[in-house]
Amino acid sequence: MTRVWGRVLRYVVLLAVLVITVGPFLWQLSTSLKGRTEDIYTFPPRLLPRHPTLGNYKGVADIVPVWSYALNSLTVAVANVVTNLVGASLAGYALARLRFRGRGAATLAFVLALLVPLESIVIAQLTLMRQLGLNNTLIAVVLPGCVGAMNVLLMRDAFGHLPYETEEAAVIDGAGVWQRFARISLPSVKGTLAVVAVFSFMGSWDDFLWPLIVLSDSSKFTLTVGLNYLHGTFSSNQRLVAAGTVIAVAPLVVMFACLQRYFFRGVAEGSVKG
Amino acid sequence: MRPSHQARTHRAASPWLFLLPGLAVIAVFDLYPFLTTVWHSFTDARTLLPGHWVGLRNFQDMLHDDQFWTALRNSTLYVALVVPCTVLLPLLLALLVQPRIRFVGFFRAAFYTPVLASVVVVALIWNWMLDDRGLVNGILHALGAGPVPFLGDGWLLLFSAMALTVWKGLGYYMVIYLAALANVPRELHEAASVDGAGAVRRFLSVTVPSVRSTMVLVGALSSVAAFKVFSEVFLMAGPTGGPAGADTTLVMLVERTGTGLSGRVGYASALSLVVFVITLALMLLVLRAGRGEDAP
């Protein structure tokens, strides 16, 4: 009997936490769907809009170019995924599987890079981008994080856990180092590649401080910077702000819903090893 | 060129070819900017002006800068209040979703939602909920409590931003704890419950000791993150840091001082260096405290 009550209690607490963690998002979605005539300040709050409308999504696009901001964010995020997958798997493979003088020093360089908080070098990065003539471009948004030190170390770990036998056979067959990397090792670390891809996409899509600092021309803004601007200028219209935030969070929720099983396994493995 | 020689050079060069993109990026965009930051912190550099060597003047200026002390206080408070919550609450949450009961996969994924969203998105949602006429004040009003100026008062703004940080991190640290709990042998719990230990006793004498190293890790990660706080406060209190700038954090001060056409790059670099030294010290301190308790 106590066991049943224990289980009931557990579900009650789970539902309470669900309301706290997901409730605010649903409330925002609801606000974004409420028409101009519907009072959004009523109490008790009405979660289901009486006359749901997509008008606010059109309205927010009339005020700020939210779709072109979304496209900027997508461009930056996809570029970040590609460069991180290529750069981190190449470097991780060399650190884990190749023997050469200076391997320890190279590993140390990545660890040191990890220890320097981005927040403490953003001003110097901005100065550097000015010197390179790249400030206020999407390239400047991508460059500093295009091969993350953490991703290199994650890939090194993944390659390090592969059994040596698979590659030995390939060496005997005369396969060169590039073939061993591309044909044999890379397909065996798909799980970690997926984790690197998801985190790179998320980190880039959600990033705020760096794009805020390096972008000054409003046509170049990413979605997060554009939303901050929207909030500053039109905070009085909560319906429009709500529509903007839903546009920013929806792609990630969809992506996560699709990859959820894969993702939790990968993250758990990563945190145990890492 | 003889074939054997060619083969050998190829083999010797290829590790560095593999490493080239990664090493180039961290050298140019992490390590070089760090060295620039150190150099600039001893100069009076400004945006577009290289500046001259001024020795320790930036650091001496800091001692007399009220904004610096306010920012240092706020960032330190952030660590002191956020970290205990971030170490404890996600652990309780992980225990809640650990058993393989029905729908648990759904709950785990749902609790992760705030981690997925950009801090900009969640800050805007919170701004709306904590508005004078928002949902939270509506509920408080129904309970008979007056409207609380969450977004109007300096201290309440800072506490609201802290609550946001804790809330957004719940799912992230929960996943780390879940991985650690998966390695705790079930027999320990069963033995303890046969001995008649209650839930609280079992938590303190079985769970906590077995995930202690993970608690230290979470403590270190969240201390560093909390000290570097920027976005939550910037978005909730505004770029100028709330009423009379009272909510400004150190990284906000760095951003405000060092950017723009009249940015004081030298002084901002000195502030950046303070951020770097304190985050590093915090991390070492937490890791060391964790190791110290391990000793018998």
TrEMBL record, chain A:
Residue ranges occupied by any ABC transmembrane type-1 domain in the UniProt entry: 70-258
Pfam families: BPD_transp_1
Transmembrane segments: 12-29, 74-96, 108-128, 134-154, 242-264
Family: Belongs to the binding-protein-dependent transport system permease family.
UniProt keyword list: Cell membrane, Membrane, Transmembrane, Transmembrane helix, Transport
UniProt protein name: Carbohydrate ABC transporter permease
Family matches, as InterPro entries: MetI-like, MetI-like_sf
Organism field: Streptantibioticus rubrisoli
Membrane topology reported for the UniProt record: Multi-pass membrane protein
UniProtKB/TrEMBL annotation, chain B:
InterPro entries: ABC_transporter_permease, MetI-like, MetI-like_sf
TM spans (from-to): 12-35, 77-97, 109-129, 155-180, 265-287
Residue ranges of every copy of the ABC transmembrane type-1 domain listed in the record: 72-286
Membrane topology: Multi-pass membrane protein
UniProt keyword list: Cell membrane, Membrane, Transmembrane, Transmembrane helix, Transport
Compartment(s): Cell membrane
UniProt superkingdom: Bacteria
Family stated for the protein in its record: Belongs to the binding-protein-dependent transport system permease family.
Descriptive protein name: Sugar ABC transporter permease
